[in-house]
Amino acid sequence: MADVTEQQVREALATVIVPGDGESLIALGMISGVAVKDRNVQFSIEIDPARAEEMEKVRIAAETAVNAVPDVLSVTAILTAESKSGQSGAPPSNAPGAGAPPRPGRKSGPAGITHIIAVASGKGGVGKSTTAVNLALALKQLGLKIGMLDADVFGPSQPRMLGISGRPESADGKILEPMENFGIKAMSIGFLVAEDQPVVWRGPMVMGALQQMLSDVNWGELDVLVVDMPPGTGDAQLTMAQNVPLAGAVIVSTPQDIALIDARKGLNMFRKVDVPVLGIIENMSLYICPNCGHEAHIFGHGGARTEADKLGVDFLGEIPLDIEIRTHADSGNPIVEAEPDGVHAAVYNKIATAVWEKLSGQTLDASRAAPKIVIE
């Protein structure tokens, strides 16, 4: 098969005429961010926010046109709204993928979702995504209807961790049906882009993608939508925190000082935009040798608990550094699902119980709460 070139993509887009304008997307200068990698194509369509709804048809037509180019494997087009000053304009609340910047006071989420929570970290490498998926599965074990939104556009992990492959379907060409496994509904850019393909988008394209994955998905009725946030405190995090009605945020950190510094930044970001912090989780808290039982604090121990006390937030629990947690996540069968009665699942279940009690304002029956964990 021959390589696909950007010129071929632009030639295909030159055949897509914008209704009301009478000219093509290319002639109107509406195409930006074209990226071609291993015959997978990505690009954005810059639009007037007021035309977001009608331009969704143009987006679909653009994807169809590029899909017709020989040897193209996949196409992902994103609507993004930018003003002439270079700053994104604010679309109406129902505009899909308009890529608006954060604007305090405007928060709307999909109907049918009772609570949306963010699982966040100030930096990468602390096991946030593994924690998020196991927390989601533990919430499901409480009898709740759970969804997972993988908001880490540049490093989506949830398709692999949830053991889901393939592309989402759409009955009307606009609203996507979420993928599903283990009773968890899920959406991720990883379902739309090949696993080994980098996403090389600018900020407005990322904002548009996040908006579409939240608003243009048939989530149905959910008790909790868990959002696996990107690491850090950049545009994507602020957009989610300010534009989405988050019921709360869970901060994940390892015990060492450098991770706690970044965790503190993430926590303070949520506080500044009036998102309640539900608590802090200390991941990779301790390591127990499977052969001799020796306990080692590789990254230190208790730092997150101390930090929670300093910041006046709840400490939700300690998760050990264990190869079983990692291997189950990598294989698409997370530990809470693979070993629901095991010691590690009980840790996540205890955390999920605390989170749900905070969200619902109800205390669960003792029979539903996770048992206490004693590691000897």
From TrEMBL:
Establish whether keyword Ribonucleoprotein is in the entry.
Answer: no
An annotated Gene Ontology molecular function: ATP binding
Alphabetically ordered keywords of this record? 4Fe-4S, ATP-binding, Hydrolase, Iron, Iron-sulfur, Metal-binding, Nucleotide-binding, Transit peptide
Q: Which Gene3D superfamilies match?
A: Fe-S cluster assembly (FSCA), P-loop containing nucleotide triphosphate hydrolases
Entries under InterPro entries matching the protein: FSCA_dom_sf (IPR034904), MIP18-like (IPR002744), Mrp-like_CS (IPR000808), Mrp/NBP35_ATP-bd (IPR019591), NUBPL-like (IPR044304), P-loop_NTPase (IPR027417), YlxH/NBP35 (IPR033756)
Binding-site positions, ATP: 122-129
Recorded superkingdom: Bacteria
Cofactor dependence is on:
[4Fe-4S] cluster
Domain called MIP18 family-like: residue spans? 6-76
GO biological process terms, semicolon-separated? iron-sulfur cluster assembly; mitochondrial respiratory chain complex I assembly
Q: Where is this region: Disordered?
A: 83-111
List compositional bias (Low complexity) regions by residue number: 85-100
Q: Which purpose does this protein serve, as stated in its record?
A: Binds and transfers iron-sulfur (Fe-S) clusters to target apoproteins. Can hydrolyze ATP.
Question: PANTHER family, from UniProt?
Answer: IRON-SULFUR PROTEIN NUBPL
- Subunit comment: Homodimer.
Q: Its family?
A: Belongs to the Mrp/NBP35 ATP-binding proteins family.
Q: What is this protein called?
A: Iron-sulfur cluster carrier protein
Q: Which organism is it from?
A: Hwanghaeella grinnelliae
